[in-house]
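Box S2. Input/output pair 1.
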Amino acid sequence: MIKPATSAFIHHDYIPTASTLILEQDIRRAIQRGDTKMCCSVQVTKTTTWASDFVEIVSSLKKKYGHQIAIESAFEVGFWDASGRLDLPKSGLEPDLLIVRPTLVPYGNAVYTPRQIRLLWMDELTTPYMVFRHLFRAMIGAMWTYPNVVVAEPLHLVGQVGLHEMDIPVEMLAGFAQAVAETQTSMILQQTWVRGANSAVEVLRLFGLNQSGKSSGVTMEQVLQKRYSLSDLSPLEVNRVIVPRAYAA
């Protein structure tokens, strides 16, 4: 049996190289380009000790350059588990945004590497449906828990665990789209910032689902007929995932 992957597997607790001087240079370049908004972000985990320092640095730069460009501070974080809790540091100062950009897959009460999850479902120790279920439970849960969440490339983990977007259950896609619209959650899709989709229809179109449907034959009308909420995903049956030693990352 192996331990679940932890945030330290991907990121170590180090002081970001983006010092005040480097951030200030980036802001000046953005102003010269004529940009009207800039987001200063840094990857953090629960063990990060300098998170408040980063927020304080960005706040000081806001005071200095805020009359020329809108500046936002952000933590880039992953999931802590499949309930939607994020791997956040205990910071006295909160950033403007929490950008959810996970590298580990939420499953049960922990997170695992994509390789671990891929081997599990390939050896029939779990199913693709359950993998999707836990991933969407985490994303929807985070949107309803944290008011300043931004979901970055929400489906990128699907391919990393060896599954396909066309395999996503229709009701889960519907629930995700409805949650995005109802919570007015911003997304980052293909490096483009999408702020505040007005409806589930608009969200589904962003993912390429139109009136004619995807190649799977599922139409937007079929998706929108599904009623799906956070309660449909709770409680999670798997409180602890036990995998053989062979599935070590």
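Box S3. Input/output pair 2.
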Amino acid sequence: YVTFINVNLHESAVDPTATAKWCKFDDDVVSRTTTDDAIVSNFGGEKAMNTSAYMLVYVRDNAIEQVLAPIPDTQIPQSVSRTFELERMTRNREKKKMEEEQLCMTVALVTPDIVATNHTYDLVEQTIINEVIPHETVWKHMMTAELYLFVNDKLFQKSDLPKFIECSGDMRLDSILSSEFEVLYVEFSNNKDRPLNDYLTTRDILFFIKYYDAITHKFNIITHTMLDCHKRISLYRSHLCEILGLPTDTELKYYIEHSPMTVEYIDETNKNTLGRLVEDQDGSILIVEKAATSTPINNAKVKMSELYLRVEFEFHQAFHNKKVEEEPIEPFLLKFSLDQPLTDAAKEVAARHDVDHRRILFWTRMSGNRQEACFDDYSIHQCRQLMTRQIHDPRIMKVYRVQYIIMPFDVEEVSKTRMQCRLYWQLPNGHVEEATLFPPKEGTVADLLEEAERYYPYAEGGSRKFRLLQIGNSPLNNQRVYQIYNENLALADVDQRTMYKMNIQQALHARIEEIPVDELEITPGDFFCPVVHFEREPTKLFGVSFVIKIRNGELMTEVRDRLRRKLPDVTDAEFAKYKFALLSRDKLCRNIEFNVGEKVNLTDMANQTTGVPQVYIGLDHKAPSQHSNEAAIRILN
């Protein structure tokens, strides 16, 4: 009998008081396990990944009633009962929320006093709308007359209710408000002697008046007014001067703020009517400034552009091939204009580390989702490159995250005298990691190894000498070694491929490793033989391939002992189970027995045409299992 149990869906549980012996199994082995591992770790455990696990339970015929019998509430742990109750409450809350979303909408009520606090673009900052102004929930079928009464109750005391203009037509909100969230501007007058102006949809346009003070470099939203869309802006100069508290004969300059990035200057000679200037919209923002204080470098349009392009960046220090002792400084915030040269950002970052700004390397999002290092001359670029978006919108108040690295040389050298290449290196602990090095473009393998010496995390007792191995095009943990490159070989002749089209970054089919002390001296007759790990089939490689020094005529038992020393993490008991074979091109040539007195014969290992050894040693043993979690067992039939 098979029973599938899921605590989140069926709210059932296995009786913990029943006598049971649990087993877990995989494709090869069945082994005993504890009740705690079988139940607690899979159903309602503390780890989130186990709270919704499925279990496959085999129950004997005569034990079905005992195991799956109804469990009294007294035997259910309080933690499980509490989990069930919380899930019921969550489901009910989500159900109610979905019902309200279908029948209700959210509005934010903006009043003139809130608008007056804004000194930048638009009318209200997005953070004010999202975090400060209360959001009210209204029914979608509410009529406009009911909305007026709703605003009355929310914003005003009953003793000083302003007199609202009667709405000309009573309509449902969902017929005039299309979004699930709308921002509504509430116009009112506390002065009974100054009622609200009439609004004719065929004639009037609602303008919010901003005044730019060239002395304080600040925008102030003064008020709002109705202007005739059929008239020119120049006809309203005296009216605007009266609103701003200026003499009626003051010369003014006018701008239309279409968006934070688009501010249009309206010349006095402009013959277009207001309706044409705002593209027949029913409202807009009019910016006014005194002509006497306006200059080409200090005016409303220049200031608005400056506010729009001003962006805050958070700089995080990273490391190129990080060493253990290196620690980054705390991230810091800096503000730059997107039009500023990238050199300005490099100088600010370099000043915090007391280094030359030409050594600062920025990692930017150049295309798609891939982050690239910016190696070009910074003087020809702008801070706009540090963004992770193609289009900048300052209203979202986004802080862009930028990574930087302090290089050991000028960044410009990469595009002029150096090449960027990716390869692997083997650390002293045996792990293989990716590395990026910058050898000379016309350099040799020796130059590449010299460049690696800058970053390699040496361990005590090492030789501090490197070699470059040719490896196969395989995953990180399955790199077969083919040969050792000669140090005089040009990098252009090393097996490589372009990582991305249109990208200078190269990936070498190579691995750098520190030469063991006992392999520094090479005598005539020595041969470095590649060694690979495989399980049953020579094509099923795993682990890290390496090379071992073999001398013609030496005892095979010495080769076995040398192999043993190459595997310090393997116990003697495990090594005794290893099988050894000579492989060639992923095929088994013959097994190696390491008989006493048997000697190495390189002639047997050589290619009949070239005379060069073409075989490699294979270690046949079981691949180590990599269990990330011993939780639920998943069986696919």
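Caption for Box S3: The chain has a mean pLDDT of 79. Residues 417-519 form a domain with the Ubiquitin-like (UB roll) fold (CATH 3.10.20.90).
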